[in-house]
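Continuing from the previous page...

OK, I double-checked the sequence for TF-B3 domain-containing protein against my notes and this is the correct one:
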Amino acid sequence: MKLFSKLLTQTDIEKRLSVPTHILHLFPFLDGDRFADLQVKDSSGGLWTFRCIYRDGIYAKPVFSKGWLEFVYAKNLQIDDEVAFHKDKDIEAAVPYRIEVKRKLMRLMGQDIWIEVEQLHLYGLS
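Thanks. Re-ran it with the corrected sequence; updated structure tokens here:
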């Protein structure tokens, strides 16, 4: 199930990834904690740990902080890449979260052509 998708901003690739507040209940926060460490699998099967933190109060503004920038640098992510974050429906899954990142290559006949960043090297792009 897709939890959210968004086009990356400069803040997302330089500091932290902002996450929609309405999905916080789907993350494994312990009582009293305002952070949760999420095990996430990328499209090539790589395993990442992202820390989701949120502020106290009405405007929680959750973000992925720790681990996120390492992912950004490893995948050479850019502004306007599209990130999609998923949760496995199988509650027993060893790694319940999955992330995909796509980059728009071109517009052809009125349609945007996207490719997963994991596949860019196959086309001599990176």
